[in-house]
Amino acid sequence: MKITVFTSTHLRHRYLIKMLAKNFDEVLYVSEKKPYIRSKKTQLAKKYFKKVEKAEKKFFRPVKLNQKKIKKISFKYNQIDFKRLLTTDIFVKSDFFLVYGSSLLKGNLLKYLINKKALNLHMGLLPYYRGTDCNFWAIHDGNINKVGASLIYLSSKIDKGDIVKTFKPKKTYNKFYLSMSACKNAIDDLTNFLLKKRKISPIKKIDKTKLFRFSSYKTFNDVAIKNYLNKKINF
User: Fold this and answer.
1) Does 235 map to a domain?
2) What is the tens place of the pLDDT at every residue in 42-64?
């Protein structure tokens, strides 16, 4: 079986590729390197992202990818070339398409992937948190039981696809570890789930009445970071 994955270059993204390569015959790693713009804005933001990086290193050690099973195609952020992908054998013959941590996919590529019933691994527990930095906001809002991840169908609207499966983290009183635990558990469970569910059916549709927050990069600022850092974990 073959799978195409649209993701980024952090340790957690490379770990996902490694796990999939263990279980799939071929993996096409469509890689985008995210710019570190937000982490350079203020001293408080730098402090926050250093803690995120430390937590990521604890849960995801440096990964050496199996080059025999993985084909990597790299693009600048938000500049994926759909026509180039269509000339790639693994892409056109993939059994699964997965999106995790990529830029916002648009146009003919998005239509193609929706038609192929591509899946999106969203780091947030749906239907409660949509958008960016969802587990940050769940902790910020004191909704610790809403920290998690969701596997959904890719849709034309952000995080609006039918829910296939949800994942929860292991309990920890470290805020940064809680978010990374949700990510690690989701990736570990995902591979076996994909292999077992060749015909995947949704669990449920998004219930918009249950939405707590639809977040964007604009709302992530020093005030939000201070509130997050001062928040205590209570289960």
Assistant:
1) no
2) 899 989 999 999 999 999 988 88
